[in-house]
């Protein structure tokens, strides 16, 4: 059997396969989990911002480019020098976690291309940190208002990154450390120690004042009570109470009572008893 007649068909098939393999990378692309893509038409120069493509295998025309974005959470760590309200130099370490808004990849690419972290996130974070810390003193940043400072930086950075046209969602912002000149740090810590000691002394003083006031009120109450009792103790009342006490004693089963004559103020005399 002569197979030479099939040779042209085999050659054509081989050429087609080679061509398909060659152009496959330009017509088929894969978007992985945690990624999104947008298509740019090189002939028309238009970016299809409204069509954000999710994970999976996808096809496109050879004259279009697929730009693939990593939309998983990113993290940057910045160490920077800032000035406080009084112009004192402070070294601060900042950590920021963020990710692009999934459905806004086209807008992000149009404005920042694939380098939105370097062109947008890092400059805005550094600028906001400097602005916020410039509103506080070193002592406030280092100790008394650190949570407030951290919260203000997060709120203001989030507002800028999430604004229309930026489309970055910030997940967290943390101040890892704050470093002051050693002399300033020691002065602040010494001041804080003295303030704590003063508060402890004031607490003890207030406690002693409260106890003295309590005793004064108790003494005044007791004096008023005694005055009322003394004013109510008439001779007739004392005689009546004496008679009642005598009757109680005389009826006691454990007492042997002998009454002889009468005592002072006309009360009977009681002798004996077990």
TrEMBL record:
It is found in: Membrane. The chain crosses the membrane at residues 6-28. InterPro entries: Band_7, Band_7/SPFH_dom_sf, Prohibitin. The keyword Zinc does not apply. Residues 26-192 form the Band domain. Keywords: Membrane, Transmembrane, Transmembrane helix. It is a single-pass membrane protein. SMART domains: PHB. The keyword Endoplasmic reticulum does not apply. It comes from the Bacteria. This is Prohibitin family protein.
């Amino acid at each position: 059997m002569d197979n030479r007649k099939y040779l042209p068909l085999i050659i054509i098939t081989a050429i087609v396969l080679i061509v398909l393999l060659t152009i496959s990378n330009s017509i088929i692309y894969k978007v992985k989990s945690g990624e999104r893509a947008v298509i740019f038409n090189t002939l028309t120069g238009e970016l299809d911002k409204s069509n954000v493509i999710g994970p999976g295998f996808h096809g496109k025309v050879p004259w279009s480019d697929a730009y693939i974005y990593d939309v998983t959470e990113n993290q940057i760590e910045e160490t920077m020098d800032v000035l406080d309200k009084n112009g004192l130099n402070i070294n601060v370490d900042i950590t920021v976690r963020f990710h692009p808004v999934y459905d806004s990849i086209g807008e992000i690419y149009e404005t920042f291309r694939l380098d939105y972290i370097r062109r947008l996130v890092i400059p805005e974070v550094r600028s906001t940190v400097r602005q916020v810390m410039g509103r506080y003193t070193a002592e406030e940043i280092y100790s008394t208002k650190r949570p407030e400072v951290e919260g203000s930086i997060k709120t203001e950075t989030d507002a800028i990154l999430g604004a229309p046209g930026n489309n970055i969602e910030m997940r967290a912002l943390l101040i890892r450390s704050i470093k002051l000149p050693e002399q300033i740090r020691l002065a602040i810590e010494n001041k804080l120690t003295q303030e704590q000691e003063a508060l402890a002394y004031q607490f003890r003083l207030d406690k002693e004042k409260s106890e003295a006031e309590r005793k004064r009120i108790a003494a005044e109450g007791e004096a008023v009570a005694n005055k009322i009792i003394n004013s109510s103790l008439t001779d007739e009342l004392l005689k009546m109470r004496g008679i009642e006490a005598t009757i109680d004693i005389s009826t006691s089963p454990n007492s042997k009572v002998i009454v002889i004559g009468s005592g002072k103020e006309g009360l009977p005399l009681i002798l004996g008893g077990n």
